[in-house]
Specification:
25% strand; D-amino Acid Aminotransferase, Chain A, domain 2; alpha+beta; 15 strands; binds pyridoxal-5'-phosphate; seven-stranded mixed β-sheet; eight-stranded mixed β-sheet; D-amino Acid Aminotransferase, Chain A, domain 1; 322 residues
Length: 322
């Protein structure tokens, strides 16, 4: 199991004393994507990647997806720490230009004051065959693009989900790691969409609730908040960690113990967490309505607290460097 992931560096109570908005104000629209391949600026539409890159041929690598608000990446340090842990577990050395590239990208992003999605991909490098070659130089791609469109109704109507027929394998050596292998995720999402649902929820091999396709899962029943533990094979999400902190600051300690899927029937509220989508209420699972069928009050409070926390952290960063 990877070492515990650090708390995001923006302390919950660490917001500046000055008045900050409840929501992060919108940043500029990113004019064009920005891309770095192996530390050098590249055209994102014609990047120079080898056809033998193991990320392409074997999904042999890892990545991070982050969200930038007004040019500032939220929880950058926590994402970089998770990437380092994953790369170390995969035996991929972080290339020497890595820090400089991230610094250059964050500088440009900040100058653009843009809202964006930031993806850092790292593969083992090039090589034929399956066995991990030694001495190869890892490939890195840092891509800054526009955020995916999130429906304006997300907070008011929520999303629908469906239990995936495939399962997360909590015994896999890659369990809990953000590797490039998202085939099961793509198939689960396709299956969910084919059945008219927005997203899918994975169970682990023991049949416990695990996570969404690209998100962590929380449910609220009778005032108790529960979220699957790391032993169920979840990705230890950075937003999940932030939400656990928010709940604690509200005096609500979340229970991290395996959850049988039947518990969803008794749930008053369900929500998913991820860096890009933040807090997404789930209002229908399969044929069953969750609670009242509308996003629940605790989900609303957590969402507001999360957005307030982001707003504070971004304002603090911008104040400190303006
Ligand atoms: C499988 C999976 N679980 C959870 C998450 C949420 O992680 P985070 O909050 O760090 O974005 C993601 C994010 O992409 C994911 O792919």
């Amino acid at each position: 199991m990877p070492p515990a992931q650090p708390m995001p560096h923006h302390a919950l109570a660490g917001a500046s004393g000055s008045a900050v908005p409840e929501h992060p104000p919108a940043g500029a629209t990113l004019e064009r994507a920005m891309c770095w391949v192996n530390g050098l600026r590249a055209n994102p539409d014609a990047p120079a990647l080898s056809v033998s890159d193991r990320g392409f041929t074997l999904a042999d690598g890892c990545f991070e997806t982050m969200r930038a608000y007004r040019g500032v990446i939220f929880c950058l340090d926590a994402h970089m720490a998770r990437l380092s842990v994953t790369a170390a577990r995969l035996g991929i050395p972080v290339p020497p230009h890595h820090e400089q590239t991230v610094a250059a990208a964050t500088r440009e992003l900040r100058a653009a004051r843009a809202d964006a999605s930031v993806r850092l991909t790292m593969s083992r490098g090039t090589g034929a065959g399956v066995a991990a070659p030694s001495g190869v130089v890892p490939t890195t791609v840092l891509l800054i693009g526009r955020l995916p469109a999130v429906p304006a109704t997300l907070a008011t109507t929520g999303i629908t989900a469906r239990i995936a027929s495939g399962r997360r394998n909590e015994y896999a050596p890659s369990a809990g790691l953000k590797t490039l292998s998202y085939t099961d995720t793509v198939l689960a999402l396709t299956e969910a969409r084919d059945h008219g649902a927005d997203d899918a929820l994975f169970l682990d091999t023991a049949g416990h609730l695990c996570e969404g396709t690209s998100s962590n899962l929380f449910l609220v029943a009778g005032g108790i908040v529960r979220t699957p533990p790391r032993s169920c094979g979840i990705l230890p999400g950075i937003t999940r960690q932030t939400v656990l902190g928010i709940l604690e600051s509200m005096g609500i300690a979340a229970d991290e113990a395996p959850i049988p899927p039947g518990e969803l029937d008794a749930a008053d509220e369900v929500f998913l967490t991820s860096s890009v989508r933040e807090i997404a209420p789930v209002t229908r699972i399969g044929e069953r309505r969750v609670g009242s069928g509308r996003p629940g009050p605790l989900t609303g409070r957590v969402r507001a607290a999360y957005r307030g926390l982001v707003a504070s952290a971004i304002a603090d960063e911008l104040d400190g460097t303006a």
